[in-house]
User: What shape does this take?
Amino acid sequence: MTQVITNTGQIKTSGSGGGTTVTFPISVANGGTGLTTVVTGDLLYANASNTITNLPITTTATRYLSNTGAGNTPAWSQVNLSNGVNSNLPVTNLNGGTNASATSFWRGDGVWANTSRTLIQANIVTTDVTSVTFANVPQNFSMLEVISSVRGNTSVPNLLMRFNGDTGANYQVNYLLVDANTTTSSIGLLTFLYAGTTQASAVSASEFIISVVLLKDYAATTKYKTGLTNAGNASGRYVQAAAAWQSNAAITTIQLQMSSGNIVAGSNFYLYGT
Assistant: This one.
């Protein structure tokens, strides 16, 4: 036996003359949806007993289907971070986890940064060298600090600092040099940043100068890099300098060398990040 719906809205059994009248649209109780039209993207759901309705497609991007409609019915919504997520967001979902560690935190500018002063590299000079280099400087700190105990082997050489191999006159430097007899100051474009004036070779071989150079926003790529130097020794030589490396490139390499001669054995250099 076969039953069909005729174009007059009747259910008829094949070969029979009579039929049962059906009202369109066919209700849920009779196996239909109760709807006459749907459009692309509509989602059908029951909003009451034996009643089906449609949730129209949303034209707003990045929405998901939630149960935030009336009576917990479906609705388009955004993720509610206070109660709409479970478990922990994987570290690798934030900048790929680059530079994340047990002591780092997620900064507002979208990078992992460390919460405390961290020793990045150390270089202890055991034989005289022409220069010392800190390579592959990590980019997850807000400031670098270079601390040196250093001595040269010529008469009153300067300790010079350069970045990323740049030897051009791209370092705007304002410095003040004080010793027992004179005070000298100068400002201008140089091919280096002053990191200090080292102890003369004529003074006791046991005496080294201490140099501290601070480099702020060294990883920025939209601004010049600024540095501040304080260096001196017990024999009366003191240098203070402020400088700007006129480049938007992030600092990835730091090189220190003497203006003449070598850095002698016993000198040491430490690179910290904060």
DSSP finds no helices and 21 strands in the chain.
